[in-house]
## 1
Amino acid sequence: MTPYDTQNIFAKILRGEIPCHRVHEDDQTLAFMDIMPRAPGHCLVIPKWPARNLLDCDPDVLAGLIVQVQRIAKAAKQALGADGVTLQQFSESAGGQEVFHLHFHVLPRWDGVMMHRHPAPKAEMQTLAEQAEKIRAALAAL
Ligand code: 5GP
C-alpha cells in the first residue's frame, strides 16, 4: 500500500498550517466543515493518527473515530434541522478518495433533497462559520 503522505491537505490542517472551521477537537480526533459541501452542514471527521484511509488505520483508532462520527452526525442533524444523515468514506482513488488522510464525510440530509454532485462549489466562509458554531452548540448539548 502507498505510504502515508505527510503533505496531504488534512495533515496540514492538523498541523495548523491551513485553517479550517472546527466543529470538534480532542486528543484523537478533529472534525471540521468541508469547504465544498455537498449538503449544508457537511463535516469531515478525521483521526490525528496518520492513516491514509480505512484500509491502513489501526483498528483501535478506527473504533474511537467512529464514536466521534456518531456524535458529529447527531449534532449536525440536530443543528441543521435535518431529517437524516448520510455517511461517506472513500478509500484509494478507485474508491473515490481525493485527500489521502482517513476521513468520514457526515452529510445532513432532508427528505426529497438530493446531495450536490461532486465537485460542489466552495462555500461562503461566513456560512461555514455559522454552521460550525451551531454544530458545536448542539455537540455541547448532547
Ligand atoms: P474525498 O477524499 O473523500 O473524495 O474528499 C475530500 C474532501 O475534502 C472533499 O469533500 C473536499 O471538498 C474536501 N476538501 C478538500 N480540500 C479541503 C480543504 O482545504 N479544507 C476543507 N475543509 N475541506 C477540503
## 2
Amino acid sequence: MRILVTGGAGFIGSNFVRRTLATRPDTRVTVLDKLTYAANPASLADLDAGRCRLVEGDVCDAALVDKLVADADLVVHFAAESHNDRSLREPAAFVRTNVEGTVAVLTACARHDVRLHHISTDEVFGDLALDDPARFTPQTPYRPSSPYSASKASADHFVRAWVRSFGLRATISNCSNNYGPRQHPEKFIPRQILRLLSGRPPRVYGTGENVRDWIHVDDHNDAVWAIIERGEPGQTYLIGADGEASNLDVVRALNRAFGRDADDFEHVTDRPGHDRRYAIDAASTRALGWTPRHMDLAAGLAGTVDWYRANEPWWRAAFDAAEDFYAATERRAAPTARVPARGAVRDVGN
Ligand code: NAD
Ligand code: TDX
C-alpha cells in the first residue's frame, strides 16, 4: 500500500509514519511536508529510505499535491498550522494551510478516486464548562473559539462537502489533546518538561483549572488505522482515551516526576479566549474494536520525560525559539480570576 502522509514531519504525523512502517510491512510512505518551524526532519531521519521518502512542499501547491495523490492508494492528511497561541498572532497562515491546503488535498483525492482520512481536532466543538457532565459526540454542533479551531472546523465542512458533492471516500477523526515523543516544545507538556530539564519552573496560563482530555500519540494513531481499515467512508469518528486532567494536575504530576514540590510553578498571563474544557466520548471509534492502551497518564508522562531527557539535540533549538516566542507576551500573573463556569460571560450570545 502506497500512503501519502501530509504533515508527516510534525508530531503526530511522524509518529504515525514510524508506527505504520513498524507494524505494517506491506506499506510505503511518502511524506509531504513544508518543513515549517513545527517540523523536525530528524523525526524521520532513521527510517528505511526504501520505504519512506520526504517531499518538501506545500500542501497548498495543487499541482504537487495532485501529482503525489495520483501515486497513492491512501492519503492521511495531518498537515496543519496547529498551535492556538500562534493562531492568535498570525491567523491568515491558519486559513491558508488548514482550509486551502485541505481543499487542495480533497480536489486531488476526488480526481484520482483515492481514499482519504482527514485528521481533525475536538476543538471544533468549542469548549465545555468545567461543571458540565457532557462530553463531545459526533452529533455535537460545531462552535470553534480560536482562529485555529475555526480553520479546522472549516476544513471538516469542506471534507463533508466533497463526500456529498463528489462522492469522495473520506473519513474524519476528531481527537483530543495528544502527548508523547516528538511533540514541538511550544506545546504544553513538552514545554513544561523542557523548562524543568533546564532548571526553570513550569508555567501555567491563568488559574490552570482548564481541562484537557489527554491521549498518547500512539493510541491516536492506532485509532486512525482502525478507522482506515474498518471505518465507513463519509463518517466521523471521535478519538479520546478518557484522559481528562486539569493543567494544574499535569504540572503537579510533572513536578513530582522530577522529584520537586508539586506546587512549585508559575502562573502567567492567560490565553485570550482560553477554552475551558474538552472531553471526548470515543464510542464511535471504540465500536470499531479500538481501545487505548496508555491509560495511566502519570506513566505516559514519565515515558515522555525519558524521551526528551535522551533527545536534547532533537529539541534544543526549537525549545529556545519557543521560549523567545512566549517571552514576547507572557508575564507572571496572580491566578485571581477563576475559569468561567457554565452560564458565565463567554456563553452570552451563543
Ligand atoms: P505539528 O504542528 O506538530 O505538525 C504539523 C506539520 O504540518 C509540520 O510538520 C509542518 O511542517 C506541516 N505543515 C504545516 N503547514 C504546511 C503546509 N502548508 N504544507 C505542508 N506541510 C505543512 O502538528 P501536530 O500536533 O502533529 O498535529 C497534526 C494534525 O493533528 C493537525 O491537523 C492537528 O490539527 C491535528 N490534531 C492535533 C492534536 C494535538 O494534540 N497535537 C489533537 C487533535 C488533532
Ligand atoms: O505554557 C503553557 N501553559 C499552559 O497553561 C502552554 C503552552 C499551554 N498552557 C495551557 C493551554 C491549554 O489549556 O495548556 C493547555 C494545552 O495547551 P496546548 O498544548 O497549546 O494545546 P491546546 O490549545 O489544548 O491544543 C492542542 O490540542 C488540540 C493542540 O495544540 C491542537 O493542535 C489540537 O487540535
